[in-house]
Write a structure and sequence with these properties.
Elements: H1 5-23, H2 25-34, H3 42-79, H4 90-97, H5 99-125, H6 134-161, H7 170-180, H8 190-212, H9 220-250, H10 270-293, H11 301-337
């Protein structure tokens, strides 16, 4: 294990997350199989008290999980390159950790997404006097646990893999990516990704506006279309950013590094850019969850519609902010030099 404070901090926060989430897991299991709001006996009353305590614990776990993820990403991009021989940015750190690094980040993303879905259902549940979604919240709690546990374990394995690593050359990775980006070398070219990003950037705000201001309320079909569009937009936006738009931030052609955008020399622009991508994905999942939960309780419909409208407004705002932050340097370059990179 490398001797860096980040390892202890992320590990400690992960232990706190797992302690809160696993500590409330027995209650979540009981809620999933034994919750019945129609009962009013002592057993049900005790379960209601335990349910509230478990929900509070998982709310704290959600906040700490987000904090640990931010610290890990910031550490990979800013601090760990200093302890990995030959690494100049997060690409070198990821190269040193091998497949473990990507697996850890993916599992952590899945865990945060699952917790955000749970939080959406929990917030809707609090609007109902009889807690009609408590059993669903218990099941969502149990679904999030494997991703949280595996994400914490894989993170420690990835950080342990950095100890005693041979020097890396992250620039070689970028050269290989640049060679693979030549016409005909990639299944989907940068031009196609950019075109898809442009098209979806028109579709997503339009669909979000329709959902946010639908006069008769949004349907489940619209929520599914918005969610699929948001997922496609996020993927296309990331590919367009790393393949095309990042060059205007770096002012260097074919520097396909997603981690250098986090560096202070580039103003740390990667942090708000990636936050916008994450916000679109999380809010799409939240909006879909809200409308999917509405049929379970007729009296939930107004609250579900309000949550979906809020999700649509947030998605549109995040997508437009991403367009501004990612595209502004390209527009300035065009106005200053009269051509594109």
């Amino acid at each position: 294990m490398i001797s860096h404070p980040l390892v202890l901090v992320v590990g400690g926060v992960d232990l706190l997350v797992l302690g809160l989430a696993l500590g409330a897991a027995p209650v979540a299991l009981r809620l999933a199989v034994d919750w019945d709001p129609r009962r009013a006996d002592a057993r049900q009353l005790r379960l209601e008290g335990h349910a509230e305590a478990g929900a509070q614990a998982l709310r704290w776990a959600t906040g700490f999980a987000v904090l640990a993820g931010i610290l890990l990403v910031a550490g990979i991009g800013l601090w760990l390159p200093g302890v990995v021989p030959g690494a100049m940015c997060g690409t070198g750190v990821m190269q040193a950790s091998g497949a473990l690094g990507l697996r850890a980040l993916t599992l952590r993303l899945v865990g945060v997404l699952a917790l955000y879905v749970w939080q959406t259902a929990d917030a809707l549940n609090q609007q109902l006097p009889e807690d009609g979604l408590t059993a669903l919240c218990g099941r969502l709690h149990l679904v999030a646990l494997p991703a949280l546990v595996l994400g914490a374990v894989e993170t420690q394995r990835a950080l342990a893999a950095l100890h005693g690593m041979a020097p890396v050359d992250c620039c070689v990775v970028l050269y290989d990516q640049a060679a693979a980006a030549r016409p005909g070398a990639r299944a989907i070219s940068d031009g196609l990704w950019l075109a898809a990003f442009g098209l979806l950037s028109l579709m997503l705000p339009a669909l979000a506006a329709r959902g946010a201001w639908a006069s008769r309320g949004a349907s489940g079909a619209l929520a599914r279309v918005v969610a699929v569009t948001a997922a496609g937009w996020s993927l296309a936006a990331y590919q367009a950013l790393t393949g095309v738009l990042a060059a205007y931030h770096y002012e260097v052609l074919q520097h396909r590094c997603p981690w250098c955008l986090l560096l202070p020399v580039h103003g740390g622009i990667g942090f708000p850019l990636y936050a916008c991508l994450l916000a679109v994905v999380l809010e799409a999942a939240a909006g879909l969850t809200a409308l999917a939960a509405a049929p379970r309780r007729p009296d939930l419909a107004p609250y579900a519609q309000a949550r979906f409208r809020k999700a649509c407004r947030r998605m549109a705002a995040a997508a437009l902010l991403f367009l501004l932050l990612a595209g502004y340097p390209a527009l300035c370059w065009r106005l200053r030099h009269g051509l594109w990179l």
